[in-house]
Structures are given as C-alpha cells and as structure tokens.
C-alpha cells in the first residue's frame, strides 16, 4: 500500500501522502524530461506529414530505452495511444487514461503483493508482540523477550550460516526454478534474555526462512526496470505474486469467505437466527441468537444448551425487564408483543438477579479441562461471557454494557426479520463476503509455527534448567538454532503441498495452493486473479453459483469455469482492489470528533428513538448520532481529504438505522470518479497533468477526485456510466465500463455483441491457447511448455489487451478466414486449413518437455552416478540406440532421439540396503525416450539442489505443424478441429489473389450468435486495408459504420463480403463470401498427444486385463453402455470375445461335484479327478471367487452340460 | 560470488561424490557452459557442479559438434 503509513503510527494522513510525493519528483522529473524529448520528436513527425495525422498517430510508439523504467511508461507517455499532448482532451472519452495509471500503481496482482507486504511488514510484528515472552517453569528469573522481527533479503539456504549480512546474495528467482530451490529469505529477531544474572541482547538471530513472494517488497525483483529484469533472467511482464518452493511456482489462491464479526440474519427451516462468526487473534467462534417456537435463545458451542435471551441479558448486567425490553424492542409495540413471552421463561427459571443469571449460565458452560475442585459457576460464567461469547466485542473490566448491547442488537435483528422477512440477509451478496489473501493465510500459518517454536524452545530450556549442576553457564541462544528448521520446513511444506492444518483454529484445508499454470501468459495471469469459494461443490443450491448484481465491477461477469465449479470459482475484475487491514483507533476517534455520542452511555430508549442512528465500526455499535446524513457527508469529506485511509468505507443502512464504517481486511472495492454538483471532478486539466506525468493515480486520490468504494458503499451512490448521463443526483462516474470484465475476458473483441456463454467459453479456452509465455521462456526448464513459433498480436485489440500486455506476449495468429462451405470435411465446426499457410508457419508450435534425473544418495553411502563408459563400449558404438549419448554419458545437445533410444546412462548401485557398505557393484540403467514421435535435445542442465543432490535436467523439443485433428479456436468460444488441409491451389481466392488460411463453415454462426466474431472480421479487414490496428473494446471499439467506410474507400464491399473464385474448378463462386482476418488461437489439445491404438499389449498384474490409458499403452474399453447395446442386440459371441477372450480369458480346472477349483485335473477336496472339467472364464471372475474365499465366503461353481447326456452324472 | 567459500553446507552434498577416490582420473573432462558468466567449465566425472569462475551452480552442456539434420516442412 504505497503512500500509507504504518498501522503502528498514529495516522497522520495529511502528512503521509506528502511523504510519497517527496519520492516522486525524481521519477517525475525523468518523466517530464523524457516527455519533452518525445514531444519534440512528435513535432518533427508532424512537420513531415502535415495532415493525415489521425491515422499516423495510431501507430504505436515502441517504448524507448530510457523509458524502460516501468512497463506502463508507453501508456503514460505523451502520445497516449496516438494522442499527443497538444490534442484536445475529451474527458468523456479520455477518462479511461486513469486505468493505466491505476494499474501502474496497483498492478494486476497488486492484491497479492499488498497482502504479502502487509503481512511481512505489519502482521509479523503484531504476531511477535502477541507472543513476545518466553519464560521457564523452573527458573522464574529466566525471561526471553523478542524485541523485533524482520524478514531480510532473499538468499540461498547455504548462505544463512556463514555470512550474516556481509555480502548481498546473488540469488534470483530463476536460479531457484532451475535448481529446484525455495525462494526464501531469513526471518531474524532481536532478543533480550537472561544469561546467568545479566540480561543479554542479541540482534539478527535467525529463527527460520520465509518464502518470498515474487515482486513483493522483499523480492529482488521489486522496483527493477525492464533491463535489470532481463539481467536477472526474469520476464518484466510476469505478474509476480507467487512463490517458488522446491523449484515449483505456487500460487495461494484468493479464498472467498463470509464476512467476520458481522451479524447475519438467516431463516432456516422456519427458525430465524442471527449469527456472528467472531474472529480475533486469539479465538474464532460462532455465536447465535435463535428464535424457536416464539422464544429467543443464545446458542454457542461452549454452552451445553441454549440459554433464554433474557437470562443472558440479566447475566450481562441489564437487570430490569423494562430495560431489556427497551434495549431490544425500543418503543415499537409490535416488536414488544413478539418479545414479551421471553420474560416468562426467565420467570419460570426464577432468575431475578445477576448472580442467579450467572449461576444459570455457569452451569451450562462446557469445560475443556476437568478440574478436581468444585466449580465456581459464577466466575466461569463471567469468563465465558467475557472471552468466549462474541470475543470480538471488547469488554473492559466487568463492564459488560458493550456486549449486552451487541446481544440486544442481534435479538432485535431476529425480531425485525420475523416481522419483515425482507430483512433476512443474503449470504451471496458480495458486500457480505470477504476475500482471504496469501498474507492472511501465511499469517495464520506463521503464528501457529511460531507458537510451536516458542513452546519447543521453552521445553528445551526447561530440560537444561532441570539439571542441577551444569558444567557451563546456560545460554538460551544456543537452543534457537536447533529449532529454526521447524518454522522453515513447516511453511515450506504448507506452500508446497497446499495443506493448511492449524490445530488452534481447527483449520484443515487442502488445496490452498496451486501450481501456477504456465500454458500461456494469460493462463498465468488468470490464475493470479482467481477466487475460490469455500462452498462445497456437491451442494445443490444455486444461490452461491448465481451471478450477483452486486458483483458489478468487482468480479468478472464472464470468467468462470463450466461444470462442477461453475460460479464457485470467480475472477477479479480489472479495477478491483482488496483492502488490507487498517487501524480502528484513529477512525474511532474521528467518529467521536464528528459529534457522535458514545453508545454505552445511552439507554435503550435513546438508541431506538426515531431519527437516531447508531454508528457501527466494523459491525460493532460504538456511537449514536442524530444527524446521520451530515455525519456521513463529513466523514466522507475527511476521507477524501486524506485524513482517514482511502479504503475506509462508510454507508447508511436505513432499515436498521445504522451508519456502518468498515476498516477490515478483505473487502472488495474499486475506484470511481467523484461527481459533485452534477460535474465530474476529473476534468481535462487533470487528465492533461496525468498525461504529462505530473500527476499520478495516487494524486487523484489525495486530491479527492477519485475514491475507492466497497460493495456496501456502492449502494449509497448513484453512479453514471457515461459523462453525459450525469444528472442531478449523480454522485460518481464510472472510470470505464469495460472494467466490469476481468483480465481474461478482456481479450475478447466486441464481447458485448456475443451471447454471454460464448464469452465464458472463450475465458476457458484463452487459457489453453499456445503462444509466448514470457520473455524468459527459453531460459526456463518447465515440465511442459508449449510455445508458438510465430505469434502475432491481434488485428482487433481491446484496451484490456494493452493493459495486460497480451499484445507483447500473444497467443495466436491473425488468420484470413473465408466463411463458406468447402468439401465435406468442415462439418461440426471443423476447419479447413491452407497447406501453404501451414508451410509458412501458421499454427506451428514447439513443445518442450522436461526430464529430470536426480542422482540420489542412498542410506549406505552409495549414490547414483552417470555411466560415461557404457555407450562408448565397442559393442554399443555402432548401436543407433546410443547414438545420442555424448562422452559424459548424457545426450548431446541438438541430438535427435527417437522411440527407444537412450538419452542418459545412469549407474545405480546394485545393493542399496543399509547392510551393504564399501565397494558396491554398480549397474547401468539407461533412460529411454518413450514417445512415438522423435524429439531433439534442446538443453541439458546440470545443477545441484539445496540438499546437495545433483540434478540433470534435459529439455526435449518437438516442433509441430498443424495436422488433422488439432484444435483451434477464435476468441469467441468457437472451437473447432482441423478437418482437412488443402493445397493452396485448391483454395478459393479473391480478385487480388488472396487465399484464406482457414475456411470456416457458416453453420457455426446462427445458433452461437457470436456477432462479435463478425464484427472482429469486419474491423480486422478494415484495419488490414488501412494499416491500423482496430479496437474491439467492450462497450466501445471501432464502429461498424466507420469500418464499412474504410472498406468502401479501399474498393471492397462495405459488408466485408468478397467475390471469390474456386480454386478447384476456376469458376466464380455463386455467392459472395464473408472474408477477412480473425484472430485464431491454437489450443494445447493436439492429436499427436492423444492418438492411440493397440492390438496386443501390456496387462495389469492383478486382474490380467489390458491396462488403461494411453500412457500405459492401454486397451480401448468396451464399457457398460456398449455392453448394454450388444446385449440388446443379442450379439452374444461378440460379447464373449470382447469381455473374455480378448481380455482376460483363463483356463481353470473346476470340479463339478464340489464346485471348487482344482489344479492339473485334480480336485483336492474330492481327492479325485473324475468330475474335474477344464473351463475358460475371465481371470477377474476367478480372482473374485478366491478373494471371496479369503473372506470366508464359499463360492461354488455349478457345471452343466451344454448338450446334456447320461454319460456323466455328477451327483453320483 | 558471495557464497563462494567452502561452506559447511556444501560438504555433505558433495561428500560421497567428491571423494578423491570417486573422481575418476581416467575419465576425460567434458566442457560445460556456466549459466551465469557464460564461461567454460571443465568437469570430470564426480566433480562438484560449480563454475570455477563465479561459483554459479547451474551449468549447461554445450551443443554437439556432430552434424544434425532437420527435416524442414
């Protein structure tokens, strides 16, 4: 959170932004300087070509080397995509310039980085402060105190011990990837502890290693420009926000949860209940106030039964019935009638004093520990009510007023919802949700491990102190080093496996982290914005999956998977920001300064009086105001002035007469332009300053031109989408409407013209497209990497494409498409490809596969090695199987390997048991290439991991041209396989001799209703003719009429249709063909990886049936449904063949008399060979019989003659 | 360059392999390229994987000098 002071500081907001500004001039000066130069250049360009400016200016400026400062420089340069400084600014159209400015500050994955930075800089210190003392049970004088905690710069694990900050580590994330290391930094603490009789201070004591998030402020990549990034072999476009553990890139996905510390009213099975999940650093509990059969109770896990609400109120010190009544119902007669019955329950229990009420509660407190002595019910009740029930409502001393008010509030909510069912809360409303980010997840994990560390540390100390006579003076410092692996390994394991198991919060979550998908750049980006929900996938409720209106602008409306996770996995929209925690205290002070009165001083009568609104801070009522509107306005003014954090939200809830202020973490919010008196506060002047580089997004915030609104506050606003829509009551203006889509859906041109599911399909497919992955793609050695050989940026772009820089790492090519029928090989969405196009490189891709061989060391001291002699032996020299092997026993770089050829000669010890020591015989094991299609050795990397194991990583490369059955898709959810590859001679062509690259069947259009695709073709064609890139931005983009004009100007039909000549007959086609460029993606599903057949082959050992799957050369299964068909048809012999003879036929000797299986024609049970017959049955059936036998279930086989004769009679 | 000292952490790693006995004097040295400084690294069988110049531990094998024929289509 740039420009925001530490939470520990008492928020001098007016000063803080200035601090950031001070840092700015250096950069700003550079910008302006650069700007001037660029301006001069543009001037010269204009002089050369006086007119025709509009077209000329569309040309994009490549970022100059000096502007390598940051990646958004191009967009913030004086030519803002064809707009020069001198161009008139039209606020209505140019306000979108705020968007790159926003992303420059926030970035696409800023949520992750912010959260991690907050954790490392703030949360870590808070956790330390909460666990700062380590004492010993045995020596009361011993005290260890943690003074400070820091995370240092990342380094290698081996550098921890010898150098403590002497020299800077040269570790890079890419080295960690290549060497299978964990990218982590040491966590150090400053301690003061007792040694003998003196207090000793030690600084920079390492207690473990913290995995570092890439591009966070601890990472070596932080603040690096493009050139420095290149030196570190890192891609400047890489979003960061992930970890590298054991060489794997791991993302902690954003988790969606119901908000904490807020009252939620629900009705389930006719029971109305108000529940609160309280979450504090110590405890996480859930408290309910429920209405059952007209009576109201308090329910909590630690209370063995539900307690009538009146008793709870009395226990909390609200003694008179009248006061209880007024606190809950106010003077509303209807509520009072509903509530009156509750007093009877209290009367019946004969509870009239606080003492009696506490006794009553105390009797029902569940005990965690069994105490021998008599229980003190009274104290237990106080303890329970103070700390266990609603722990987030702080209780000072024994003043339970706040808690009583809170429970009264919950009860009131229940009654109100009973009377008016509309007041039941919606769980799926985005304002009721919180997003949990990596920082929070890590903070839970670290706290748990740190507590365990302290516990183990204390045990170690106690163990030493227990000894009476020690040889030397006890130094606690020596014990810290022994334990630091616990924290390191604990955190590393959690991130590497994704299993978060914390006993303290009873949390046991699997699948928290995922491997970052590197199929394409957009797949990686899409993963960083993904949100997973905690809801079970199996539940049949549609609520959580449905699109919520409150999602607008916060979560992408299109990007969600199909199938079981549909609607549960969401994606962030482009402008979304997720808040981190802000300090409550300054806000609380501000509330009272604004004239609100402390709520604990008020009687119930006052709280619920007409026109009085209570002010809630993070859901807990703290004050009362009689002028809510002006309070709200003043508070917002202060926020816009920067006196309060910009992420604080305030809104009025008129149903409950409450003003809510939120400062908590995980709220979703987005920036909007402020409108006052019917005018947008962002005027041309400011946009000019932004363009010039004298203002940044931060300045827009501090000047009160733009503000962040969360979902709840959005409900208080009247947002105009366009500047011309601003009316009398408008409060805000949208920065750009296309930001309702996320990064992935933003790739689609003209998505507002498509049927919505098509956009969703494209969101799934965009992630499978083969393209460029990163600038460092050739230095990476990934398990599987797909690269396109000649990727192109799309002819029809969107603003989002520019913002995500998809145009720099594209995944697709602009294919000239003819929408017409051709041959019969284009049915069912199949495409006809031009052979010459494929020869020229259309759809050509490279597949890089990794093969790692670790040289293991075994328990007996032997270890694997490489056998460099085996391939050189005379008998092997001529063998082509070893042709690729070099003189070091590893395949030569550049060599071709085909199926069965060896690429590595490994020597393995013959005996690895612990007993075998000394000189162990080594045997040679060759690693063979298994795939049917040959590969080339692209790279051989020899390295060593952190544990010291040698790793040999081979990268195998295949270059693939499109073939029949490869999958392609446009950007409109229109996928199809290649059905035919036709020679260019046979392709249709137009007057200019242009042949299509792809022929697509027109039947793809009517039912799919992808009008956007047609518009893409139309705009793309105009762009090609005019030499410009066109825009297909959502709710905007190039207009059809303009494009039609361009087409006509260049002598084409305005419709985009062309006259074509058949390449086969040479005749004119009898129709005009819709003809032009469409951006096509090649998807990762390729025939070569799927093609499979088998006649005979391997069988599974247990069942002797053919194996399953292509990887094991498996058989093709005749499944149940196919079997059903054959049964229905009556093809019994075919069934017999498929299910037994061709599968697992087995001959068994069965005794007809006892029905048991014998062997070699002899029945052991009958001790005869008389009735034994040899039959054929499936081996699986024989196995079943024997397995049943093992479970004491006897199976007898009855034999019967097919053609019965009197000759055999088994019964005899 | 920082960590280029024979540290304790390195010892167990190469322990078994780097023993004088296991380094094969008869085997010829193969030349590799350092991933950091691009320098030439002559390695024999069993030697620790490390650039002698800069201490980097990622080495790449050099391209073969045998002829490689590609089918261009």
TrEMBL record, chain A:
<feature type="domain" description="RNA polymerase Rpb2">
    <location>
        <begin position="697"/>
        <end position="729"/>
    </location>
</feature>
<dbReference type="InterPro" id="IPR015712">
    <property type="entry name" value="DNA-dir_RNA_pol_su2"/>
</dbReference>
<feature type="region of interest" description="Disordered">
    <location>
        <begin position="1"/>
        <end position="67"/>
    </location>
</feature>
<dbReference type="Pfam" id="PF00562">
    <property type="entry name" value="RNA_pol_Rpb2_6"/>
</dbReference>
<dbReference type="GO" id="GO:0003677">
    <property type="term" value="F:DNA binding"/>
</dbReference>
<keyword id="KW-0862">Zinc</keyword>
<feature type="domain" description="RNA polymerase Rpb2">
    <location>
        <begin position="1114"/>
        <end position="1197"/>
    </location>
</feature>
<dbReference type="Pfam" id="PF04561">
    <property type="entry name" value="RNA_pol_Rpb2_2"/>
</dbReference>
<feature type="domain" description="RNA polymerase Rpb2">
    <location>
        <begin position="615"/>
        <end position="676"/>
    </location>
</feature>
<keyword id="KW-0539">Nucleus</keyword>
<dbReference type="InterPro" id="IPR007647">
    <property type="entry name" value="RNA_pol_Rpb2_5"/>
</dbReference>
<feature type="domain" description="DNA-directed RNA polymerase subunit 2 hybrid-binding">
    <location>
        <begin position="744"/>
        <end position="1112"/>
    </location>
</feature>
<dbReference type="InterPro" id="IPR007120">
    <property type="entry name" value="DNA-dir_RNAP_su2_dom"/>
</dbReference>
<dbReference type="GO" id="GO:0032549">
    <property type="term" value="F:ribonucleoside binding"/>
</dbReference>
<dbReference type="Pfam" id="PF04563">
    <property type="entry name" value="RNA_pol_Rpb2_1"/>
</dbReference>
<dbReference type="InterPro" id="IPR007641">
    <property type="entry name" value="RNA_pol_Rpb2_7"/>
</dbReference>
<dbReference type="InterPro" id="IPR037034">
    <property type="entry name" value="RNA_pol_Rpb2_2_sf"/>
</dbReference>
<dbReference type="InterPro" id="IPR007642">
    <property type="entry name" value="RNA_pol_Rpb2_2"/>
</dbReference>
<dbReference type="InterPro" id="IPR007646">
    <property type="entry name" value="RNA_pol_Rpb2_4"/>
</dbReference>
<feature type="domain" description="RNA polymerase Rpb2">
    <location>
        <begin position="515"/>
        <end position="578"/>
    </location>
</feature>
<dbReference type="InterPro" id="IPR014724">
    <property type="entry name" value="RNA_pol_RPB2_OB-fold"/>
</dbReference>
<keyword id="KW-0808">Transferase</keyword>
UniProtKB/TrEMBL annotation, chain B:
<dbReference type="GO" id="GO:0006351">
    <property type="term" value="P:DNA-templated transcription"/>
</dbReference>
<feature type="compositionally biased region" description="Polar residues">
    <location>
        <begin position="1"/>
        <end position="14"/>
    </location>
</feature>
<keyword id="KW-0862">Zinc</keyword>
<dbReference type="Pfam" id="PF03604">
    <property type="entry name" value="Zn_ribbon_RPAB4"/>
</dbReference>
<dbReference type="GO" id="GO:0005665">
    <property type="term" value="C:RNA polymerase II, core complex"/>
</dbReference>
<keyword id="KW-0479">Metal-binding</keyword>
<dbReference type="InterPro" id="IPR006591">
    <property type="entry name" value="RNAP_P/RPABC4"/>
</dbReference>
<dbReference type="InterPro" id="IPR039747">
    <property type="entry name" value="RPABC4"/>
</dbReference>
<protein>
    <recommendedName>
        <fullName>Metallothionein-I gene transcription activator</fullName>
    </recommendedName>
</protein>
<dbReference type="GO" id="GO:0003677">
    <property type="term" value="F:DNA binding"/>
</dbReference>
<keyword id="KW-0539">Nucleus</keyword>
<dbReference type="GO" id="GO:0005736">
    <property type="term" value="C:RNA polymerase I complex"/>
</dbReference>
<dbReference type="GO" id="GO:0008270">
    <property type="term" value="F:zinc ion binding"/>
</dbReference>
<dbReference type="GO" id="GO:0005666">
    <property type="term" value="C:RNA polymerase III complex"/>
</dbReference>
<comment type="similarity">
    <text>Belongs to the archaeal Rpo12/eukaryotic RPC10 RNA polymerase subunit family.</text>
</comment>
<dbReference type="InterPro" id="IPR029040">
    <property type="entry name" value="RPABC4/Spt4"/>
</dbReference>
<feature type="region of interest" description="Disordered">
    <location>
        <begin position="1"/>
        <end position="20"/>
    </location>
</feature>
<dbReference type="GO" id="GO:0003899">
    <property type="term" value="F:DNA-directed RNA polymerase activity"/>
</dbReference>
